[in-house]
């Protein structure tokens, strides 16, 4: 399988507050008084209002409106981006923040086309200017009197956080935005923000997401990473704080450093790998489902305590008040707010939820990074550097980042070091544990609490990433490092139990692709090592019959390959004639009827493997009339490649299909000799 691109998680939607909330909610619910032009026109018109509060409310309303997909074409037609852009530099800090929030939601909800349109409409100019102003503002606050800076600094950090999220979203979807990021020196700006991680972890996490995106396959930007820049990443990676937000931060920074592997001094590459995998190992050590349970209990207890405390304080402040409660209610609240109110000192009501989401996202990201590390191309012998592993992973900074500037750097060829570090940090064991189905208690807790319900999807995603990671590890590591033949058989049994414990597994495309990929890799390894397979042909056919109807091409390719692997093993055994006939008929139907040439090519390859040799296979091929079917299909296959190939498939895929076409001709010739021999 190819390299797995890191995906960002769906962030909480921007939520307008204060006096804007009612208007924004009305827009979102469609209850606002609308003119013929609809809510978009009215909100966009209010962006030019002389009152900052009105402009802020309009931005907040747009932030909610853009979450409704039907509204996006109308907003594009009315040039919403060009009208929101100048408000990023509005005199009012509140307007800047809500304008950035609206653009953040627009870029997140609109996808590639909207982000490209935002770049075409020059959103990057005011966005970069805002990022620079925020950076300068935070610097000036550092030298100002403390009493003047706290509120202002918090406001600027909030604006910067929204702006960085807009930058991240756009750069993830638009190569033009990445090019502007490179040319405008945005790296220096966001690294300044990252330096603030000890006090501004939310901003630092947003920057780390952005950096992980812009450093991927961006050689031009890598030239800008000098020793100073790398030391900023060092300080974040080695941060001793272990809260869940910081765990996420360190994981994202680890992913960024992996993207920078080509500029790391060769003598420090082993230490880099150990440092990255040490972080990822620690992330995967935590039981995510148990954390969900514990944090939900903590939230319940905290809210209960806060409510009881407020009741006590309310009763205490009720003494000596006049009897007219209605007249007194507002003054009472004002009096309490002037004091240090207990609930003001408590975290926001979603503290535990945010921390849990941070941990689960860190685990998902860690698994994705491991997949990418496993996909590093194997170097040739003359490319190996003299490298040494080090258990002291933190020592790598002294021997790499401090010496980075001015040193001739070589590409990273670390398959051996990755292999060693994966074993040293028990990554296979931890990945295997994450492949288990999510804890039913945690799922039940989340399902009964609407705000926690999104965590169910996150837990399922972690399982899918773990299965894909398992597939990569099986393909990379020696069998002995996976526990030998018994361990591989146990893994297959575990995966079959996961699969068939879900009666509706065929409906879950991501899960089916992930588990079929893992099974394919395991069965391939076991076949190559002559290890008996522990899934019955009936189980495999159940999987394949369900998988072949999936709309996901990856699933269909996997199940066809699995049948090819299993059939080639059965072809060497006695008493397998009927099973081979079933497999052959299935593969033949897929090859001749699947709409994708990629799946067709895989099915033909599988037929070649199954019926290439063996007495039982030869008998089966004659009985299912394989030769005549392939002869009839041969010109059809050639025509489909000629007609569909250039427009729908990549050069690499076309090269593979050409090889399949050539092998089909040879296989038909071979089958002709088999049929003559058996029928003469």
Q: How does this model look, in words?
A:
71% of the residues lie in helices and 0% in strands. The chain has 33 helices and no strands. The two termini are 44 Å apart. This is HEAT repeat-containing protein 3. Belongs to the nuclear import and ribosome assembly adapter family. GO terms for molecular function: unfolded protein binding. One of its GO terms (biological process) is ribosomal large subunit biogenesis.
Amount of helix: over 70%
Gyration radius, in Å: 30 Å
Largest sheet: none
Total strands: 0
- What is the overall shape? globular
Mean pLDDT across residues: 84
- Classify the beta-strand content into a percent band: under 5%
Per DSSP, the total helix count is 33
Structural class of the secondary structure composition? mainly alpha
Low-confidence stretches: 1-36, 320-347, 378-413
C-alpha end-to-end distance: 44 Å
InterPro entries: ARM-like (IPR011989), ARM-type_fold (IPR016024), Armadillo (IPR000225), SYO1-like (IPR052616), TPR_SYO1 (IPR057990)
Domain SYO1-like TPR repeats: 417-673
Region (Disordered): 1-38
Function: Plays a role in ribosome biogenesis and in nuclear import of the 60S ribosomal protein L5/large ribosomal subunit protein uL18 (RPL5). Required for proper erythrocyte maturation.
